[in-house]
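Retro notes
What went well: the complex prediction finally ran end to end.
Inputs used:
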Amino acid sequence: MAKNPEYYESLNIDYKPPRGNWMDRPVDIKKGIYCYPARPVVLENVGMNDRSDWGKYWVIEDEDWELPDDWKERFLNKMRDMLGKYRTFKIYMDICVRCGACADKCHYFLGSGDPLNMPVMRAELLRSIYRGEFTKTGKMLGSLVGARKLTKNALKQLWYYMFQCSECRRCSVFCPYGIDTAEITIMGREIMNELGMNIAWVQESVSKCIHTGNHLGLQPQAYKECLDAMMYDIEDNVGISFEPTFNRKGAEILFVTPSGDVFADPGIFTLAGYLMLFEHLGLDYTWSTYASEGGDFGYFTANEMAKRMNGKIYAEAKRLGVKWILGGECGHMWRVLNQYMTTWHGPINFLEEPVSPITGTKFENAKAHKMVHIMEFVADLIKHNKLKLDPSRNDHLKVTYHDSCNPARAMGLLEEPRYVIKNVCNNFYEMPENTIREQTYCCGSGSGLNASENMELRLRGGFPRQNALRYVADKYGVNMMACICAIDRAALPPAAQYWNPDVGVTGVTELVANALIMEGEGPRTHNLRGFEIATWEPEP
Amino acid sequence: MGVKVSLSVSLGVVLAIVVVALVGGEVSTLQPVFGIFVPYAAFVIFLVGFIYRVVDWGRSPVPYRIPTTCGQQKTLPWIKQNKIENPSSTLGVIGRMILEVFAFRSLFRHTKAEMASGNIVYGASKWIWLGAILFHYSFLIIAVRHLRLFLEPVPFFINGLDLVDGMFQIGAPTLYLTDLLLIGAVSYLLVRRLIVPKMRYISLANDYFPLFLILGIGISGVLMRFFIRVDIVSVKELTMGLATLHPVMPEGIGAIFFVHVALISTLFAYFPFSKLMHAGGVFLSPGRNLANTNRAKMHVNPWEYPVKIHPYEDYEDEFREKMKEAGIPVERE
């Protein structure tokens, strides 16, 4: 049974905002909340939306943020440009009635009590500038109608709070007009990018991704070595050895997944799961070291950068001559794939409508995009009895499922992973209904905020999810949280370590692989993590 | 601006309108200004402004399909799709929008999160939904009832609406249920903004002003019906004149009527410049009015432009030797 840390009981976050007007206050930027700013030197070869053209360092604690002389003009020009390009931006600036429905829906607000983290206020930070600089009433009546001019203080405030939003869109579920704070954050960040005001964690990932193909900066041979290392583990624990292929022309399927899973625990076990599953199926597929990143950190800087990162996937599919693309477990990767990718690069005539080579199922919902989600793919396999499964191998686990924000609210991938989990695990428990499916909480570190220096923000933002997890840990003894997002797998473990030290984190495909009975496998005495499988019995 | 300033300015402006109309309404030479000119001007501002705003939004591009999905997607045939909350067809989108516009679906989801001994506790909280829905429907019914002033003969459904609205037959003339509900709901929305600390923090004069205005409209209407009676025959003569574009200014309408009209005119004229435009904006909100069909059907962005993608050739040039060494196939040896 999970023992709760003592500090839990003493936790008391005050949701009551201070009296007085937020607009008058100077911004109070706290250590542990903000991420380090991007350094110009790292960005030299990215060539857009950065400080490399005037090369100035900036230090958060300094009064002067080393902005270019024409910063105000740049900001407002960019904002004007985007207001003309996005109906969302324009409407969301215009129609909010401040009903307050979103106020207590944000995990960062619930974890911090900082009133400017209420989604309505995050938007008002930008909306006030919109009123003051772009509307007649705002120019005439000023702060009386919630309008203000763009000042350095306003800019700092904007930067501070736009990087305290993980673009999870939970608030937009509750908004009576569907106002999407993620959209506002995306606009705000892109505008600030004109001034080179992004964070190191995002920009450095972007920079690495451009050249090596992945955020981790793994060069082709290193990427392959990571997978090779996993092959040893599989051989040890499953008793099977095989060799996956890389950059192979003529494969039927290209598989793309976030690079986080190639490198870090516990994502590597999800990676092992992919390898085993595909081997078991005899899938004619290939990995790519060039398109070795499903995630898209460009999406956290500017639309054009997002498109540049994402474009490699189709480019590689075309070069290799595959028929369609299979996508791994990832959150914002799937937001980008589902809601942007076809528009960016379509129509996609060089690929075929995806058909499962194992079951013959046509994935009609992906006929234009030509990419299938691994959960759709696996659910279909299980439904057609194509996998031999022994769920009792996961009996030491009491599993709950964390809906990752983007597959839930930017796709609606809700039942597929649940169907898969229920077929590979005997013990599955849902967290409270206010915290799952379309109402799911962010892990606390999405949209490029999973740096180390902002750990307080991450732990606070992770609190609502962890609190729901604690509920099922206490009630049912849940000891494993499954998810389908690489950022989750990076961000949930430290949050769980703090709030729920007895609960682990796993990708769904890892659970599948552990239950999967593979042809020619040795005695499965240990699972992929090297732990003994309690239900294993030697054959008589 | 602080709460006090926002409140006093909002209330002050509404009271000033009341005073001006009260005084002006007593002066017979000014009556045509308040009875004819102001309503016409306000109506024109409303019409032109509203259409301008909606057309302006409508003309701005929708580059990407980014609806918030609130239910199961359309996927494998044996998984039940939520066709309303995650629509994949126009019909589904229409269903979603009907629920949103007529039943305030999203607001109905509202829960309240509170901190209790180290836990977040979620409580059902339908008050804001109830207050909003009572307010909007009462206002709608009252507006429709008022059409009797602009139509001759009065259509049967308006008489029917009158009957239902006054079904409790309290007092003479009968008290309308919607009058009570409107004033009650607006008062709730106002009090909520004032006493809930979060609401007070986020509220602007832009929020208080329309509430005071509508409250003023409701109160002046009720006063006119029950306490400071006006000559209804003259009123109808005036309104029919307005409706038929042959305005006349009958004698002897009480000043309270001009207060009512002045407040309504203010609301009309203020509408296109304010958050009240949510009435038009909700229909155009891409967060709700798009089908989640990006993977099945390409959505076209009118301003999409090609970007520079780091080419594979450059990648291979950079890493060729290492790739060869690792046994990864290359294009050029």
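What we learned: Chain B is about 60% helix and 5% strand.
What to try next: split runs per interface for comparison.
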